[in-house]
Amino acid sequence: MIDFRPFYQQIATTSLSPWLETLPLQLKQWEKQTHGDYAKWAKIVDFLPTVPAEINLTDKVESKLDEPLSAGEVQRLTHHLKQLMPWRKGPYHVHGIHIDCEWRSDFKWDRVLPHLSPLKNRTILDVGCGSGYHMWRMVGEGAKMVVGIDPTELFLCQFEVIRKLLNNDRRANLIPLGIEQMQPLQAFDTVFSMGVLYHRKSPLDHLSQLKAQLVKGGELVLETLVIDGDVNDVLVPADRYAKMKNVYFIPSVSALINWLEKVGFKNVRCVDEAVTTLEEQRKTEWLENESLIDFLDPNDHSKTIEGYPAPKRAVIIANS
Ligand SMILES: C[S@@+](CC[C@H](N)C(=O)[O-])C[C@H]1O[C@@H](n2cnc3c(N)ncnc32)[C@H](O)[C@@H]1O
Prior knowledge:
Elements: H1 5-11, H2 23-32, H3 38-47, E1 54-56, E2 62-64, H4 71-82, E3 89-90, E4 92-94, E5 97-99, E6 103-104, H5 105-112, E7 123-127, H6 133-140, E8 145-149, H7 153-165, E9 172-175, E10 188-194, H8 203-211, E11 214-225, E12 234-235, E13 250-251, H9 253-262, E14 266-275, H10 292-295, E15 296-297, E16 300-304, E17 312-319
Parallel strand pairs: 2-4, 3-6, 7-8, 7-10, 8-9, 10-11
Antiparallel strand pairs: 1-2, 4-5, 11-17, 12-13, 14-17, 15-16
Helix pairs in contact: 3-7
This protein binds S-adenosylmethionine.
């Protein structure tokens, strides 16, 4: 089973130490009600050995062994990794295996990175971090410590497997909770929330919860779905959006800036807008499920299958 004690030790002497008042107890509760497959996934994590490797986190997430694995070893490791499908966010290049995930998360990182205050020596929270691809890229930028929170247990296990293949690097850690379960720490220099806001039923509460984790003057990096329109335009899908059941609010950029200012963020600016392409989100051999091509109107890719505007995403930066 995944052991969070090294993380508790790591934060004990940092500005995150107040978290120790609530986190260990919350994770004890969490352990009692995990997903039915969690024990099976965690066994795969336990099973994999850490073999010293050369690590590259600057332009990709990669581990390279001095001595390449044999064809049989590649086959066995691939088999174990595939037991943790679907692999959504990546890609990872580990021990000669290319985990070609559904999303080219590096595309998003390339859109976001040029606009950030330098991450060197910063303490960072990545809310809704998925399997942790962007967390490793933050480590690659010199972050002091990166904490991701994401309630999906499969992603925790994917993260822990990748960590093992990256020399058991402890500069990034994933905590399997939702943002709303976190006590307000006001301790992170940068907080990322990418691809989460539209999944929240109460978006203004989400923005306030993000603010409560930042040091004064800290930087928020918010990436979310947007629609074209003015300050009064917000799409609330009647039923599904791009076949997703859990999409609640898709604002225009102006409406989103208004929300951020309303909860007290300053210096709010939109730094990027991009329509999601079929190169960025696509079906690969690392997932069995459908992907973007199946979520769009087959006769008009500017619309979702339900007739809404096709996914377009914005990156907003603000200060607390
Ligand atoms: C669309 S993915 C985005 C992943 C990654 N941040 C990215 O931009 O590629 C949304 C993630 O948010 C997570 N999530 C859902 N509800 C959450 C919550 N209440 N708090 C934190 N994360 C949440 C999901 O498990 C999922 O991994």
